[in-house]
Amino acid sequence: MMPMQTQQQLNRGAPLRSAGVRRGLAPRVLATAAPIAPATLAEGISEHSGLKHLPEAARTRALDRKANKFEKVKVEKCGSRAWTDVFELSRLLKEGNTKWEDMNLDDVDIRLKWAGLFHRGKRTPGKFMMRLKVPNGELDARQLRFLASTIAPYGADGCADITTRANIQLRGLTLEDADDVIRGLWDVGLTSFQTGMDSVRNLTGNPIAGVDPHELIDTRPLLRQMEAMLFDNGKGREEFANLPRKLNICISSTRDDFPHTHINDVGFEAVRRPDDGEVVFNVVVGGLFSIKRNDVSIPLGCSVTQSQLMPFTEALLRVFRDHGPRGDRQQTRLMYLVEAIGVERFRQLISEYMGGEELAAPVHMHSDAPWERRDILGVHPQRQPGLNWVGACVPAGRLQAADFDEIARVAEKYGDGTVRITCEENVIFVNVPDAKLPEMLAEPLFQRFKVNPGPLLRGMVSCTGNQFCGFGLAETKARAVKVVEMLEAQVELSRPVRIHFTGCPNSCGQAQVGDIGLMGAPARLDGKAVEGYKIFLGGKIGVNPELAKEFAQGIPALESILVPKLKEILINEFGAKDKTVAA
Ligand code: SRM
Ligand code: SF4
């Protein structure tokens, strides 16, 4: 537990509640923001500085007067130090040898994110969210049970979420317990390292990889290998700890584009080469959502073979690290580097970093046959005869400790003891024999996590929202479930409609990907400022992806206003029938 005195200090609001903190920075960071004189370089770079792995030009950018404040935090001490600091802080707190008020605020609020610990200082002071890495969203029963054990001790504060990157976030953790949880994660083959700040995010692939009759390649071994290479088997790779910004990478193996290559910084699209039938990957780069800009990725103009995939990814990361912008934080994502130097030069740099490796031209990938993006919830025959995958809807992705245990039990009893979690925040059981289906589907778990949910619940996605997230302008998860339930009671739809809720313009809930997107935004009601949403329409994923466009703004978040507004949209734009009106 957090010391009482500190809890009071946090509640009192000083100094953590300053404007700096609201933006994710403590006042002390702002105070140390003066540029470091070039003389520091001449004296040699501290082994603790984030400059250590940067070449001269990148150091200059990191030290520039115009470098953003996170660059200064990294110059002072590399985020990778959190990989040892977290154990030290946990130990000192457990022994009672340090107090919260004595700790470095940059470490607690910023650098610990490199170890996957996000202090939820604004909403739940003293409690941390821990973000994991689950490559390709695949978990086994042992891992699921361990996850249950990490949150169970925190009672009502402890819960978890499946994220929009097919990943797990644990909630309610204290820093005292972090060291034990990290060691336990390693023991079961998971990690929380390099999941936050300027690191590569969870690697996403096809959630039905290996069982999908339509996949071109099983994305799991590729992503596992990439994970091991990029993050040194979960222990953290210092060389990649000081990127200019986060980087999202995914591999898509079907025309459904389940991992959304169009909104990842780096997307690998599997395609079969017509001449020799080998599966290679067309590369697209620069997709991003942010407060300032939302864009789909653009073709890099090359394809990579399976044997080039790892060296290519490693080289791309080095190019981004060494050449990426480090000024205005809102202009540091990969797209800005690609635009600044041009697609050709960016591709050429990657090839140079690969030792002059030739990169082949992209391969024409789509057959002209129409393709409807598949809905993978429900029971589906696998490519292995007699076996099925069973997709179940986890409303808003929220899980309790008991849910993890129950998912593990069901996966072991009826499947092969593994599950996949998805970017739509759902869970897929695999390798279920035909004969076991009836008994499995009668399990109580599927009364809550429905295998055949309604047309809106099955496509509903929600970010964390202001329940835990300091950026949140609106509550999302609980409201999303409520609003969708109310709408399903009132309208009849002939096809599913995907509604994405996101609490602010960072768009972690991918509002622009949904058929309908709701984004937390200011609104007014009877002249007073209230929580509200913007509404987006028309997101498309897969072949010819499109981002949803803003349709309405300033909609108060009250169900009495939101539900009729969405009902009208469903009727006018999606052909819904009003069930409340007699025929
Ligand atoms: Fe996100 C920051 C949650 C997917 C764009 N995101 C945050 C933080 C860390 C802010 C904070 O410190 O509180 C949120 C943590 C809240 C919490 O307590 O959970 C947060 N993002 C999430 C998750 C959990 C949403 C969810 O409910 O699923 C997702 C975790 C993914 C994961 O497992 O790693 C999550 N975030 C995304 C996505 C979607 C995606 O990757 O497909 C995006 C948009 C795509 C993109 O990145 O281009 C996204 N998050 C952001 C941004 C805007 C980035 C930018 O360039 O400006 C921020 C703010 C930032 O990084 O400064 C942000
Ligand atoms: Fe937080 Fe905004 Fe991301 Fe939602 S979209 S998790 S509110 S940063």
UniProtKB/TrEMBL annotation:
Its cofactor is siroheme. It catalyses: 6 oxidized [2Fe-2S]-[ferredoxin] + NH4(+) + 2 H2O = nitrite + 6 reduced [2Fe-2S]-[ferredoxin] + 8 H(+). PROSITE patterns: NIR_SIR (PS00365). The gene is PLEST005203. Keywords: 4Fe-4S, Heme, Iron, Iron-sulfur, Metal-binding, Oxidoreductase. PANTHER family: FERREDOXIN--NITRITE REDUCTASE, CHLOROPLASTIC. Pfam families: NIR_SIR, NIR_SIR_ferr. Residues 197-355, 456-559 form the Nitrite/sulphite reductase 4Fe-4S domain. This is Ferredoxin--nitrite reductase, chloroplastic. It comes from the Eukaryota. The keyword Zinc does not apply. Pathway: Nitrogen metabolism; nitrate reduction (assimilation). It is an enzyme of class 1 (oxidoreductase). It comes from Pleodorina starrii. Its EC number is 1.7.7.1. SUPFAM superfamilies: Nitrite and sulphite reductase 4Fe-4S domain-like (SSF56014), Nitrite/Sulfite reductase N-terminal domain-like (SSF55124). Belongs to the nitrite and sulfite reductase 4Fe-4S domain family. Residues 122-185, 380-444 form the Nitrite/Sulfite reductase ferredoxin-like domain. InterPro entries: NIR_SIR_4Fe-4S (IPR051329), NiRdtase/SiRdtase_haem-b_fer (IPR005117), Nit/Sulf_reduc_fer-like_dom_sf (IPR036136), NO2/SO3_Rdtase_4Fe4S_dom (IPR006067), NO2/SO3_Rdtase_4Fe4S_sf (IPR045854), NO2/SO3_Rdtase_FeS/sirohaem_BS (IPR006066). The keyword 4Fe-4S applies. One of its GO terms (molecular function) is heme binding.
